[in-house]
Structures are given as C-alpha cells and as structure tokens.
Amino acid sequence: MSNTASSTADDRKPHVSDDQNWTDSVPPDTPWSFTEYINTYRKNAGHPVHILLSFFRGSGKQLTISTLALIAKQSPCWVLPIATSNIINIITYRDQHNLSELWINLAVALIFILQNVLSTWTVALQFGRINRNIERKLRGSLIVKLQQLSIRFHNETQSGRLLSKVMRDVENVEVLIDQTYRSFPIIALDITIAVVVTALHSPTVLLFFVLTVPTTVIAIYCFRRPIRESNHDFRSQMEQTQAAVAEMIEMIPVTRAHGLQHVEIDHMSKRLNYIHDTGLRLDVVNALFGSTGWVIFQVFQLGCLAFTSYLALNGHIQIGDVVLFQTYFAQIVNSISSLINLYPVLTKGMESVSSIGEILQADDVERNTRDVEPERLRGDVEFRHVDFRYSPEYPRVLHDFSLHVPAGQSLAFVGDSGSGKSTLLKLLIGFGVPEAGSVLVDGIDLKEMDLDAYRRQIAVVPQNTILFSGTLRDNIIYGLGDVDDSEVERVVREVGLDDVVAELPNGLDTQLGEHGGTLSGGQRQRIAIARALIRHPRIIIFDEATSALDSASERKVQDAIDHMMGQCTTFMVAHRLSTIRNADRIVVMEHGQAVEEGTYDELMAARGKFYQLKTMQS
C-alpha cells in the first residue's frame, strides 16, 4: 500500500477512545483541541478585534522574541539616515569633525545591515509558527464545529459556502494577522523615531511633518465605506459561486446525459460575470484608494525637500540634515501610505473573521453528549405517540405514531413517497427530535441517551452510497482502525463482493477513485452494506439498500440481509416490495400513520393498501 493510501486510512481512524465524545469534548493535549477557538468566538461575538487578539493567547514567549527580532530587522532604516547625514556633514565640514568619526559611522551602519539576515530569519520562524498555528486551529475549529452542527443545518447550507469559509476565509485571516503584525509595530516605530529625531534636530521641520496627519485621516474616512461594502459584496459572490461550482461538478453526469451543457455554461457564465464586475469594482476602489494617498504624500515630500533646502541655504540646518529630514519624511509618508493601503486588507480580513463566526457561533448543534450511555444494546425499539415536523412552517410528517419492535425482529416500512418512512429512520438514528412523544431503545428515550455511544452500536446503509478516495479495504473498515483480514473477507463474501475483489488489480488494496467513480452503482451499494455489517450492529437500517442493484447483485445482497435478520433488529424501507418478503413484519405508511401491519402473506391476503402497491409493481 502506498504512503498516500496509508495516510488516508489513518486519517479516518478514531482519534479518541471509544468512551470519548470527540465532537463535544476533546482532550486539550491532542491536535484536535480546537474547542477553545469556538468558545473564543462565542464569548467575543460581534467583536472581531477581541477575537483576533485572543488568538495570541499562550504565545507570549514566541511573540516577544519575534517582536524584538522585528525591531532589529527594521533598525537599519532608522540608523542609516543618521549615519548618512553624519558622513555628509563630516565630509562637508572637515574642520568640525575628526576622520575617525567617518569610520565609526560606517562600521555602525555595516553592523546594523548585516544583522538583518539573522533578525529576518528569527521573525519568519517565530511569528510563522504563531500564525500558522492560528491558521491550523481556525480550520480545525471549523471542522470540529461542522461535525457538531445538526444534519438540518448541513441540509440547508450549501457545501461550497462551507468550503469557502474553511479555506478562503481562514487564509484571509492569516494574511490579516501577518500584515497587521508586520506593519503596525513598524509603522508606529518609524513614525515615532522619525518624529523624535526630527524634533531634536529642528522643531520647525517637525511642524511641517505634522501637516500630513489630517490628510491621512481624511483619505481613510473618504474610502472606508466603499472598501468595506466592496469587500462584503465580493466575498458573498465568491461563496455563492464556489457553492454553484460544487453543485455543477456533482451534476455533470445528469447534465451530460440530457445534453444540457449549454444551460450550465450559461448559468455559470452569469455568475462569473457577477464576480468579474464585483471584483473589478473592488480592484478599482482599492487602487484609487492607494493612488490618492500616494499622490498626496509625494506632493508633501517635494514640499519637504523644498522647505529643508531653503533652511539649509539660509544656514538654519546643516547640508547633511537635508538628507536626514528627507529620508525620515519619506519614512513617515511611506508608513502612513502603508497604513492606508493596509485598510483594504484589514477590511477583507475582518469580513472573513465575521464569516468564520457564522459557523463557530451557530447554535444549531447536535447535542450528542447526554446523561445515559448505553451498554450493549438488545435492540428493542418503540415509537411512542410520535409527532414530527421538519420546521414550524411545514405540516406534520408523523401524527401520533406508535410502534413497538422487539429485539431481533426485522421490520419493513412501505408506502407512497412522503408517507413518513424515511423520517422514522432519521428519528431512530437521532437526526431529529420528535415534536411530541418519544423514540425509545431498550426502554431509554433517545433524548436522554448519549447519541455517539448509541450510534457506535447501530449501522446505516443509505440510499445514496458515500465512498471516499482510498482503498476498498479502507472504505469497508471506515473508522474501525485495524480489522483482521479474515473478518473483512467474511463480510466481502456475505455481501457478494468477492467477485468484484477478484477483478480489481490489487484486490482489497485497490485505490478507488473519487466517490468510487470507477465502480458501478450496485458495487458501491454492496460496499456500503459491507461497511455496515462489519460493525456487528445491534440495530441495522437499510434505506432502499437494493435500489441500485441488478437482479443478480440484489439476490446476493438480499441473502446478506436475510442473514442479518436473525442477528440484530433490522429496519428496512423499500419501494421494491419483492425484497421484503422475508421480513418478520411489514408496516404500510400513509400520511404519517400506520394503516396496515402484518407479514407479507397476511397483507397480500388482506387485499388492502399493500396489495394495491404490490399489484402496481407486478
């Protein structure tokens, strides 16, 4: 097996012991200890600056070393103007200076220049560790929170938008932290040192410098709102487009099958045009913002040169001081200009901080950790007077539904679409909470049961098979860690996958393409069933498990299902009624209620709703 395959398999092993709920409570000494960032967002809701500052908690030593190195890195910019001014004055006014002063100034300047390599390396290493750790923890926090959020949240939110928050918004925050840290301290020091040195040499020149401050404030005030609005529009368009691209890729087989490529191309072209216009507007605003500030300060710099030259001609300052003041004024100009140009980065980063907060502050969390942690389940299930609706504005899907399924019994739900079959299975998995009534397993209400501990003892075979890019073995033993080869081979035989394994180039260690695209629909479905069976579940749920199978494959899978029926409580939803002939009980659903119940033969003999459905399929 390749290193890549091994990594893929290891990444999907449980990171905590079986008795830990890793989505809600993660040990702080593990790489998955990201809950602190989730709590940080919740405590500082609506305060992005507080959130940013809290990211540096615990990094004091590294931050101190990095800051000292950053000051040392910038120090040549403060020392060289003084050394240059001194050297010019030494050469110009020979009678007032000793030649040794020339060599001292050159030596000092050389030392400050050479140390720049070491200080730059120190900043890159120390602050790089801090910033990349923040980036890692932010993404980790989002991943943890996405695992905690309810299935309803994921059903209502486009996956492309979530992907944009995890990747693009976190990158924007990383850039924001990097740029502000490297810019703000240096800008403050540049301005402070330039002002202090200028004040010591000539208060008159300092007065001229002060005139630049109101101009900076006016420039920032004029451009602040359009930049903020442009960044918000662009980020929103990018999120929507990324979600649309993800959907387009998923829809390619359907689009191609119906010859609708031009429809998708036109649809995406409109979105790309929106991004083009929004992005262009943002680029123009940013460019105009920076250019206006640059022009204003260049005009002031020319004025500074003219003013200091006039003072030198009249003997108020030395000739070398003209270079000193000009250089320091340029530093002030560049510092304030950098501050202005930094504003779009700040706005973009703060927008991303808020965007990430939409996930980390979301309250629609599946509360899995509860008081009762089940031991070995027997599999006795009871739906007791259950009412359920997906949201307050929608009608009820289930109405006072009651049903008892003894442990080890196999039960099939049948009925028209929308009758409530799949909803019952979702409630049994814990993907929803009844509006009234309760779902009990072994006499314990699921509302009181630790769902993670419960779900580790059940298995689900969904209608739409989900596979990941890894080996066939990895997909079967997903999340179980090390499993004996003999156990894997047993399950493979039971679901009729042995012929598929024999044809694959590397057998169980064959790499599957993305979503198992190299396999047929029936083969993917059998892999999903193998993944369920290898867990030795006490309750197993088949939601249209044989819907994508041909007759031969269906027979093999049906044999595996029949084999499981005596080992655990089995629930099935099926539209193909011939596949549930061997179920102990069949419940016919209509408008959220059970209208018929019995064995296959009993329901056929009754000639009721089930008989009508079966006759329609004949």
From TrEMBL:
Annotated ranges, domain ABC transmembrane type-1: 79-348
Lipid bilayer topology: Multi-pass membrane protein
Keywords: ATP-binding, Cell membrane, Membrane, Nucleotide-binding, Transmembrane, Transmembrane helix, Transport
Subcellular location: Cell membrane
One of the Pfam families matching this protein, by short name: ABC_membrane
Stretch list, region Disordered: 1-27
Gene3D superfamilies, per database record: ABC transporter type 1, transmembrane domain, P-loop containing nucleotide triphosphate hydrolases
UniProt cross-references to SMART domains, sorted A to Z: AAA
Cross-referenced SUPFAM superfamilies: ABC transporter transmembrane region, P-loop containing nucleoside triphosphate hydrolases
Biased composition (Basic and acidic residues): 9-18
InterPro entries hit by this protein: AAA+_ATPase, ABC1_TM_dom, ABC1_TM_sf, ABC_transporter-like_ATP-bd, ABC_transporter-like_CS, P-loop_NTPase, Type_1_exporter
Domain ABC transporter: from-to ranges: 383-616
Protein name, as recorded: ABC transporter
Organism this protein belongs to: Bifidobacterium scaligerum
